[in-house]
């Protein structure tokens, strides 16, 4: 499970700039304007082999009592509650303010691990000009420049060192308990808890006709046909602007972590609501995480034939990137279509953890090249020599040869189709990586 780092501080201290630096993205809007960020913003970061989730927040005023500032304060409080460690950002050039003292008092009362960061500290003498920030009584002041990247690496190391289990993720992930971890994900009120209760044959989870009944990711052990499962009922993901209630503080981050820790993600879509942007967002996150996906359209019995046709057309267009995922139409309440759904989940898990021998991969690769060669790019024609498996869940195929950087996306999709057909891969993304051999004469030619 990835550790979570929350960035908090008063407006315009550079939290969004630091967020973009940590996630190596431009997802957060940055401008010299106070109060630009208002909602929580989530992103993935990596340093070496250690991965983490970063939460960007709006300007924090702990005692805000009305208007947009009160809602921004709620968002920040939720981010702090979700986080394993808090990075408190202050402005090294503007100096200490009364608002910094208020935030520091709030963080000290919580007792959560906190790193005090003085941003915009490029060219400043740490010992002299940053001394005033020790008044906040939050330990050593870390000087960074988010805009220039100075001190950011040591900041991440220090933050992750405050999370005892942050370095143990890869070890835990390698342990196989024999149980298939199945995350049931979807928008609020899609019927996730009802489906799990139907499987279990008891009212184990609260199921109510009101969005947001489930507030946390709940794991339930289950056995079927001799196979053990861990069913993870996730809280429904809403648009960030819709997440305001304090009780929902764990919903988003727990859902993202549940998807990443699962072997298979069952994406449940409400037939009465159709395919929405949020369904596509959840599906995209599962695909980005490399998880196997099974699509289930719940409440299929509640719509007429015309609505069914429109829904199928919407799935083809809005979820086109999930063509590899099997599609099933079910009714959790009436127990319809659940048998084939279990078969699809088992097939998706088998495909995600499939072992592909090197001789078979190489044979399929050479047969594919013989059937259709990659196009020449300028004076280069890619030459593929052999392939081997580079990982599982999702399966990764590594192809070696010469001039492989010129292989087109269309040819890559052609190869993916051939490999999928050979190994009967369904429900799982397949990643193909190319490694070009070094040309020993390249340096001599340049000379």
Automatic annotation (TrEMBL):
Keyword Repeat: yes
Pfam families assigned to the protein according to its UniProt record, in alphabetical order: KH_dom-like, MMR_HSR1
UniProt-listed SUPFAM superfamilies: P-loop containing nucleoside triphosphate hydrolases (SSF52540)
Keyword GTP-binding: yes
Residues reported to bind GTP 1: 9-16, 56-60, 119-122
Keywords from the UniProt entry: GTP-binding, Nucleotide-binding, Repeat, Ribosome biogenesis
EngA-type G domain span: 3-167, 180-353
Positions bound to GTP 2: 186-193, 233-237, 298-301
Highest taxon of the lineage: Bacteria
Protein family membership: Belongs to the TRAFAC class TrmE-Era-EngA-EngB-Septin-like GTPase superfamily. EngA (Der) GTPase family.
Role played: GTPase that plays an essential role in the late steps of ribosome biogenesis.
Subunit relationships: Associates with the 50S ribosomal subunit.
Protein name: GTPase Der
Protein's organism: Acidovorax lacteus
Lineage per the UniProt record: Bacteria, Pseudomonadati, Pseudomonadota, Betaproteobacteria, Burkholderiales
């Amino acid at each position: 499970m990835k550790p979570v780092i929350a960035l908090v501080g008063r407006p315009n201290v550079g939290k969004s700039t630091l967020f973009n630096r940590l996630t190596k993205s431009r997802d957060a809007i940055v401008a010299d304007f106070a109060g630009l960020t208002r909602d929580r913003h989530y992103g993935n970061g990596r340093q070496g082999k250690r991965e983490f989730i970063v939460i960007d927040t709006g300007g924090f005023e702990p005692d805000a009592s009305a208007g947009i500032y009160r809602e921004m304060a709620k968002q920040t409080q939720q981010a702090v509650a979700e986080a394993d460690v808090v990075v408190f950002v202050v402005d090294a050039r503007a100096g200490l303010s009364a608002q910094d003292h208020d935030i520091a008092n709030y963080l000290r009362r919580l007792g959560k691990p906190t790193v005090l960061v003085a941003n915009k500290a490029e060219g400043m003498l740490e010992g002299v000009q940053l001394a005033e920030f020790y008044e906040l009584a939050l330990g050593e002041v870390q000087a960074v420049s988010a805009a220039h990247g100075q001190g950011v690496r040591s900041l991440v190391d220090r933050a992750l060192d405050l999370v005892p289990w942050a370095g143990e993720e890869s070890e835990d992930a390698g342990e196989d308990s024999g149980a298939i971890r199945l995350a049931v994900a979807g928008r609020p009120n899609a019927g996730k808890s009802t489906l799990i209760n139907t499987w279990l044959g008891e009212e184990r989870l609260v199921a109510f006709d009101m969005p947001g009944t489930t507030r946390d990711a709940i794991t339930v052990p289950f056995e079927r046909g001799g196979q053990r499962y861990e069913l993870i009922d996730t809280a429904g993901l809403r648009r960030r602007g819709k997440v305001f209630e304090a009780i929902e503080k764990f919903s988003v981050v727990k859902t993202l972590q549940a998807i990443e820790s699962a072997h298979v993600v069952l994406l449940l879509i409400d037939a009465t609501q159709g395919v929405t942007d949020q369904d596509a967002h959840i599906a995209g996150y599962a695909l980005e995480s490399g998880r196997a996906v099974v699509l289930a359209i719940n409440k299929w019995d509640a719509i007429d034939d015309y609505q069914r046709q429109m829904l199928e057309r919407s799935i083809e267009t809005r979820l086109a990137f999930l063509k590899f995922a099997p599609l099933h139409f079910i009714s959790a309440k009436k127990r319809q279509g659940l048998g084939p759904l279990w078969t699809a989940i088992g097939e998706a898990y088998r495909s995600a953890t499939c072992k592909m021998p090197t001789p078979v991969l190489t044979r399929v690769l050479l047969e594919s090249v013989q059937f259709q060669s990659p196009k020449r790019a300028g004076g280069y024609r890619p030459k593929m020599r052999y392939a081997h498996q580079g990982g599982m869940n999702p399966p990764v195929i590594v192809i070696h040869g010469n001039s492989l950087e010129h292989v087109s996306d269309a040819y890559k999709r052609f190869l993916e189709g051939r490999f999928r057909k050979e190994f009967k891969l369904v429900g799982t993304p397949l990643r193909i990586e190319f490694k070009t051999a070094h040309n020993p004469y390249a340096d001599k030619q340049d000379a």
